[in-house]
Each structure stands twice: as structure tokens, then as C-alpha cells.
Amino acid sequence: MFWCIVIPLGNGRLGAQVLGQVPEEVIILNEDRIWSGSLNDPDNKNCSKALPAFREYVWQDDLYNAQATADAECMATPISQQVYQTAGNLSLATSHSGIISNYNHSLDFTTAISTTTYAYDGVQYTRTAFASHPDNVIVIRMSANTTGLISFNASFETPMSIPVSATFSANGGNLTMTGQGTAMYGLPGSINFVVTAEFTVSGTMAEVKATSDVTPTLSISNADEALIVIAIDTNYVRYNDLSADPHEKVTQTLANVRGKTFNDMLQTHVEDHSSLFGRVNISLGIPSSNTFLPTNIRKNLEDGPDADQDIFALYAQYGRYLGIASSRKTEPSNLQGIWNQVLSPDWGSKHTININQQMNSWFAEPLNVAETLDPLWSLISDVAERGKLDALETYNISRGWVCHHNTGIWRDSAPIDAAFYGFWPYAPAWLLQHMYEHYAFNPDPGSSFLKVTAYPLMKSLSEFYMDFLVEAPLDLEPNGHIVPNPSMSPEHGIGNYNDTNVSLTYGQSVPVLFALHGCSLLRDLFNHTAEFATILGVDSEFAANLSMMHDRLIPFRIGSLGQIQEWARDYDSNGPFTHISQLYGLFPGAQIDPRFNETLAHAANVSLLLRGDSSAGWPTAWRANLFARLLQGETAYYYMTRLISRYSYDNLWSINSVFQIDGNFGVFSGSSAVAEMILQSHNGEIHLLPAIPSSWTQGSASGLRARGGFTLDIIWSGGVLSSAMLTSTLGTFTRVRYNGTAIDLSVQRNGSVILKLSDFQ
Fold it and tell me: 126-140, 308-322, 436-450: lowest mean pLDDT where?
């Protein structure tokens, strides 16, 4: 399985998977806006008329007919969304079919450079590759330690239909592939793209010949060195504008770098990448000879991760690397980041926004690469545009906007797949939590992000939910609570009604503000929106109405098994499952906190134990985060070891049924897993080493960010804090906790304070 061996390269828009094969190297190529289909209006115009009947079924606990009504009257047309697609492959075929030795296939995180080396017939061959963000190209150099021996045939291949969806040409020193995203689910393909690889060779005997016998091919022979520069672009401007000329864009990109040497482009690339990646350093445990082994061996050592503690630091940095490579300026990373080799990937490689897209974003703030969230802000803004019509046509609500559990390049917002999965209008509340966190990590009240981007979107979304919430019948909720109806726990069934597994009810724990456990998405949204209104000095009456509404919402409920109740009714559906959305309030939210409410923390722990382990990467990473928030370092470490040893490929990509990137981001993201074990900063405190496992007896982390506008460098030894340096970007007050003791600090703008163990004794 090639997922195991590929090295992923990316500049945020272009992706390349380097297989490292001999004799034929294959580079799988992606551009993040090559998708199937075209723009359409998927909203079901019947839904708003059917909602009263749907809600009545829910009140009567007739969940079979409730779900059947939603399936019949509320789902999108087509029922499935469009998918992310590959451009195709670049093949570099040599004649090296004999015995290969001294083979190495590696990736340097610090420079984002892939290197493949091997010896053949007494000659050492080297392939070096990177994806440059500043120059907007993928660069490959093929060289050897003996002159005149670089010879190979280069050609494009694609799974798209030829010549219907793709054509090839070879001319001079260029190979070009022209294509179009395919038709899918009844919608014609409309995203046109061009891929051009420009070949430059050196050497007195070097030749480049173009042939077109069957497949257009460039034959390179007798070169000292070959330089390949790849540009890819599309006609996409935004979801409703496909007016760009991909030929013109590719031509201009190549013209901009023509004349630059390999070393020129390499230096520009490394400086750019290092400016982001170099902000954070992490070391865990004591380096040993195992530290320098290949990852396929390191992850499977006989003594497990205990034999190689620093693999957790490597994994954490890998998440940062993947984020930088797959999310800069254009599209946010999708289910597979930016790397996909087929036309119809599992789950469409879409932006799944009932947990996965959020996991893709957790790492960015604390791991000091907040710039990788810029594409997410653009996606949310676009979805909000389309979601206004969805709110009106699906729910007959004229204020605000909405979307459901998936979106993609066309920014679709309607419910898809089936009501069991898709009739969940709470995804935007979860997405906008990231906007609040973006401000929390750099709380500058004068920022344009707060005033121009975050607050308008949060206010508009809050208006939708204010009109969406309904008063529950008094025989169900005698205290006059207002609840969301419909509601569900993402992808988790309540049980069988008429031999059908159902998920829809009212008052589920994730969407409801104060619903069942008081840590819901809507509570965070309403509270944060009101907070932003106060900071900006606007909309005081609106903020007061938000506060009044959340006082009428269902409080925490602890179920019959001692668990955080997942629904307003205590349904018997608490067993093993991947999703554990009812604990959003524990992580990534912060309203269940074992430091301040042991009762709720205990109930959250019961919920986790009932859910059990998972047999995939992303839910395992999620559990590691949750247990870190419960300050259970050993249990978080247990899930981290499972994630690396059981649910990672040899190249450390995360395993679901296929590669799924959110498992990698979930490791060291948001306030997650390894980061949560080293540093937490919610609820007004910076908590040092809150969940360090006994195996991490010593370590250090520099450049981590904390809420309130702080950057921290932390060192510990023998499981005990040695020092922590806090640097404030804004000059603010904070409280710092270590080992049960909290102290108050005021730090000047751009000033630093160094804390020692003695400060907490």
C-alpha cells in the first residue's frame, strides 16, 4: 500500500506525494481546487413546511417517523456533495532495474525537503524535491556522483478519461497535461486545470527529446543533472467565479522562476518554511540509538514507544509540518490534507465539519502556526454567503446563516448523505469556536480580525440559532427550557425504531447551549459573541438577549450510568463508538474542568470509559486530548502509544480505513494531546506540565503559545519543572499553575518572566 511509503510535500496549494521508487519514480500531483462537478442549488424547498410535523414526531418520541420525514423532505439534491480529485502523476522512468543498494527515502521537517538516494552499478543517484510556497512550484532535481549518467523518460498519467477529461502534450523541454474535474452526481465538471513540467538539463552530452508515439514523453539522456519545475493551476477564482485562465497562470508562474537556479529556489523555499516551522522545538525523553532509526522501525520497536520517547516529539512536529504543507492562503486542509491519488476518494476527501475539519485546525494556535488557519476563515466566510439561502429555504429563517456536516469547493451548506448523518445544523457553531480561539491566543481588542471577520460572522450565526431554538412542551421540560429540534449527536445512533437506527431527537449535548452538560457549542457561541460585542462596544441589547436565552436552556444532566448525558432524554446508547461529541465541553471546549468541578469531570470520565477504545486514528487522537484535559497523563499517553504504533502507517500518516490526516493534526493541535500534556491555558490559567506521563521524565518545549498572548519555553527533568519562560506579546495579567499551586503575574508588552520550581513551593 503506497500510503505507507510516500513522502508528502506541499506549499499549501500544491501537493506532491513522492513514492521514492526505483526504477520508475512516481510523483502524485494535487492542486487544492481540482474538484468534481459544478455549482448548483441543492436546498430542499419542502423542508420548512415539513418541520412542524418533524418536531411533533420528536416530541412524541416517534423518532422513526421523524427521521423518515427529514429523509423525504429535507435532504439536498443531489444527496451527495462533490469530491476532491487528483491531477494525475508524473512518471520518471529510468533503466535502473538491477540490484539497488544504499537506498534511503527521507523527509527533513525543518527544511521540507524530500531526498531519495540509492546506488546502482557503482553510481550514487540522488533525487531532491520540495514544494515552494514563494515560487508557487514543485521542484525536483535528479543528479549523480558521476557525470553524464542522468537518463530517464518523463510522462504524465491520470485516472481521468482521455481525451474527454485530460490531454497530454510534449514540446521542447516541456510536458503539459490539460484536464477538467469530472462530472459527478449529475453535475458536469467545470474546474479546468493545466499542469506543466519544465525540464532543464546540464552536461556537455545532455539531450532532451520530445516524442508522441503513444503517450507524449520527454526523453532525457546523458545529463549531469536534470531540473524539473512543475506548475499547476485552475480556472477557479472563488466558488461562483471560474473566469481565470489556467494556461495563462501556469505560463506566468514558470516565467517568474525561469532563470533561477535550483539553489536560488531552494534557499527561498527553506527561508519561507523555516520562518514558520522553526518557531517551535520539542524534545521528549532521552535520545538513544533508536532515535535515528527509520520511522517504520521506530514505531514498531519491541518495547513500544517506551523505547523511543522522542518519537512523540517527532509525531507532534509532523502534525505541524503537514499543516504548513496543506493549508496556506487558498483552501484549508481537507480529510486527506492536500494529498489524493484518485477521482473518488473515501468520504470525498471533503471538508467534514462535524469533527474532522475541526481536528485539522486544533494544532495551529498553540503550535505557533496560526497563519495556517487563514484558508479556514475564507472557507467559513464563503459558506456563510451560501448558508443564508439555506437558512431561508430549509428552515424559513431570514436572519443569519447555517450549514451542515460537510462542505467543499462549492461551499455547499445543505444537509447531505442521509438525515441520520446530515441533518445537523450545528457545524458552523463548532467552526466559529476556532475564530474565538484565534482571538483568545492574541487578544488584541483593536484587531481587524475581531471587528471585520469574527464578530460579524458570529453575530449573524447567533441570530440564526436564536430564531431556530424552540420551547419544549412542558410535559417534557417542565422548567420551560428552549431547545434545538432537530438535533443529533454526530453520526451516533440512539437505537432502533421500527428496525431502523435513528439519530434525530431534541436537545442533544453538542448543539445545545447548556444542553445536558452546559458545555455545548451554542453556549460557547452565544457567550463568545456577547463577549466580543462588549469588547467592541456594540450591540448591547443583542448581547443581553443572548444571555437571556442561554438562561432558558437545559443544564447539565448526568445519566443513569453516571455519564454526561448525550441527549435530553437518557437514551441507552452509551457503548463503544468512534465519535464522542457530548464531551465537546471538555475538549476542545473548556467548561468541564477537573480543577473546578470534580462532579462533571468524573461524569466525563465515565462517558469516556463507556465509549471505549477506537479502531482508527482520528478517534484515538481525540481520546488522547480528552484524557489530557482530565489531567490523566498516563491514560493520554496510552492513547498516544496506540495512535503511533497501531494507527499510523510507516510514514506516520494516520490510519482510518485509509489515510486520514485529522489523526495527525489531532496529536498536537488546538490544545491537544502532546500539547495538552505539556501546557494548558484555558479558564484564565496557564497550567504547566498538567498531564506529563511518568515515561517523559525529562524534556523541553520552546515556542508554544498560550491564551492571553503568551509564548512559553518549558524545561523539566526527573518529571519536575526546571524552568518556564513566559513572554507576553501584549502585556497582560495571567495566572500560572504548577503542581497544585497558582501564582499571579503581570508581564509587560514584549517582556519575559522566568519561573523556577521554587516559585511554586
Answer: 308-322
Of 2-6, 58-62, 196-200, 738-742, minimum mean pLDDT range: 2-6
pLDDT tens, residue by residue, 193-250:
999 999 999 999 999 999 877 789 999 999 999 999 999 999 999 999 999 999 999 9
- Region 646-666 average pLDDT: 68
pLDDT tens, position by position, 495-517: 777 777 777 666 554 433 333 43
Residue 117 contacts residue 104 (beta carbons within 8 Å): yes
Asked if 594 and 682 touch (Cβ cutoff 8 Å), the reply is: no
Cell triple for 39 = 455549482
Q: Helix or strand or coil: residue 206? A: coil
> What pTM did the predictor assign?
0.95
* C-alpha cell at position 643: 495512535
pLDDT at 2 over 90: no
Q: Which three cell numbers stand for residue 86?
A: 487528483
- Which residues 6+ apart lie within 8 Å of 378 measured at CB? none
Phi, psi dihedrals of residue 511, rounded to the nearest 5°: -75, -25
Question: Burial of 293 by CB count in 10 Å (0-12 exposed, 13-18 middle, 19+ buried)?
Answer: middle
Burial class, 408, CB count within 10 angstroms (exposed 0-12 / middle 13-18 / buried 19+): buried
Helices of type H across 651-749: 662-667, 673-678
Q: Give the DSSP per-residue string, 553-584.
A: B--B-B-TTSSBPSSSS--S--SS-S--GGGT
Q: Where are the beta strands (DSSP E) in 365-435?
A: 406-407
How far apart are alpha carbons 327 and 325 in whole angstroms?
6
- Where b means 16+ CB within 10 Å and e means fewer, 313-331 reads bbbbbbbbbbbbbbbbebb
What pLDDT, on a 0 to 100 scale, did the predictor assign at position 165?
A: 78
Helix (H, G, I), strand (E, B) or coil at 545: helix
Top pLDDT among 213 and 158 is at: 158
Q: Pick from 440, 368, 361, 370: which is nearest to 682 by CA?
A: 440
- Does the N-terminal peptide bond of residue 588 adopt cis geometry, omega within 30 degrees of 0? yes
Interatomic CA distance for residues 429 and 468, integer angstroms? 13
SS (H, E, C) 25-41: EEEEEEECCCECCCCCC
Q: How far apart are CA 713 and CA 697, in angstroms?
A: 17
- Pairing label, strands 113-120, 207-211: unpaired
SS3 call for 7: strand
Q: Do residues 535 and 454 touch, judged by C-beta distance below 8 A?
A: no
Distance between CA atoms of residues 711 and 726, nearest Å: 6
